[in-house]
Amino acid sequence: MNKKYFLLLLLFLPAILFAQASKQKKADRYYENFAYTKAIEEYKDLLEKEYNQAYNQQQLANSYYKLRDPENAVKYYAMVVEQPNVSPEVYFNYAQMLRGVREYEASRRWLEKYQEAARNPKGVEQLLKSGDINVYKGLESFRVRPAGFNSQFSDFGSFENNGTIYFTSARGTADTKTKIYDWTGEPFLDIYKVTAGSNTVNPVSGDVNTVRHEGPVTLSADGNTMYFTRNNYLKRDGKKDDEGINHLKIYKASLVNGSWSNIEELPFSNNEYSVGHPSLSADGRTLYFVSEAPGGMGGSDIYKVSLENGIFGTPENLGAPVNTPGNEVFPFIAENGNFYFSSDGHKGYGLLDVFVVTTEAPGNVQNLGEPVNSSMDDFSFSVSGAENTKGFISSNRTGGQGNDDIYELNILAPLVLKGKVTDSINDKPIANATLRLLDQSNQQLAVLETDSVGNYQVEIARDKTYPLESKHIKYNTKMEEINTSSMDEKTELVHNIELSPINDVEYLAEINKIYFDFDKANIRPDAATELDKLVNLMKNEYPELVIEIGSHTDRRGSAAYNRRLAERRAQATRDYLVKNGIAAERIVTYKGYGEEQPEVDCTTCNEEQHQLNRRSIFKVVKME
């Protein structure tokens, strides 16, 4: 190399290193101040210049983690986990982000590695629990579509009250001085409203919105009292803790002449930790909220506090099974008593999922499943009114308009599966038939029995395929499938079932054997009673039934004599049926078999065994 150029390189190298070190400080300052969108750009520049790569890869991965961007986070965490002496927390973060891109098996492997490296930390057992996700057992179905009032910014936390939808948004059009929140690069959050059925959005009036974050929100049933989340900011006196963090608090506002005023901080808010996400019960006597208060079970827990005549009681942690060592957020209690919340500590499809604890199963936390949940953050579930047919969720799932978007829920009632079970030959209803409804794993969901006129009815979910088994002692068992796809406009599915009778006259007519006395061919009174049942079956139940008769003897006497005796018995049996109204052509064969086909195959038979062998039997030739 030319000495002149080599000397220039040596002169410029300290300046280059100084510039990169300065950029590193700038990037870290952004990160420490939660300005993750700005930090990302600086870290990317540093990586392009191959400066401090291991450190900047991890900072970039962590920044995407904070922004809930799993696709980019996974890309950089994959590099970080290959570095030596990596913190176990990196494994956990990587596992969480892998769930966000539906890499569930990989996520499980890194959770196991985290569990081993961190020496059995809290919060992993639930996520590593074997078996499938505990999906909601309810039969209603959810239809999800983007709300028409979403913006290109974050919109979430919809809650309907008396025909007005309140929600939180970073669209920056509220009547406050617009400031940019460095964490997301979007304006600070404010509370907005829109009339149900409209897309015309306005900020709430009054003193609720400020230059800081506001939302989400809940209202009293009469719509005159609002509880909302806001940064620790009241009368321009925003306060930070010792680490420079301005926490969230819950405030109360009153509606006075159409404007929200009289802002008050709730007594259990605190300067040292966040309290937010208020949700008021329908009767107004319990306020649910989220807090990171010391002594909880994890990152954030759900609490409840009583409210009587404007006076709050002592907050109570909901504990297990709702709260976990992970994060539980956005509680909502419906008018029917079902309790909904979001969590990343229960086993789910991705990051935050929506879960429910029903009044019927208070100890069972159930994942609401897809399409309510996705691989991304799904939260802020709410339903409107006592009928629970409409509602909202919020999500940053792919395909949205902004960062977080609001989705409208159409909650469809279960389908009513109903029908009649009939005989396939005579179309008569079959009472007391047994129907077993199964799932796709052939696990039994319900057992039904038809009523006296063959009817059955049960509620089932939409968008599923159910194996259905129908059976009765007199009929052949039937297996078929019920498909409930594409039935949103229906409230019931009529499915009639035909069962074919078994080819057993004795079962169908419920008759006993036709027995004869020793060396006799006459029809005894007990035999006549049984033959009358057969006559009724052939006349009234199956008028097309065609049979054959076979008669038999015991082994006393010669084989030739017994064959002739059996033929007389077959003739007597046939004549009785014809005499009582059965057309002769419906008895195609009446044959004597003598002693050749004994019921009891014995050499030295007792009298009871001899009697069992002296009989006439019937076979079905055709039913229709």
TrEMBL record:
It comes from Salinimicrobium oceani. The keyword Transmembrane does not apply. Pfam families: CarboxypepD_reg, OmpA, PD40. The keyword Magnesium does not apply. Residues 1-19 form the signal peptide. Keywords: Cell outer membrane, Membrane, Signal. PROSITE patterns: OMPA_2. It is found in: Cell outer membrane. It comes from the Bacteria. This is OmpA family protein. SUPFAM superfamilies: Carboxypeptidase regulatory domain-like, DPP6 N-terminal domain-like, OmpA-like, TPR-like. Its main location: membrane. Residues 503-624 form the OmpA-like domain.
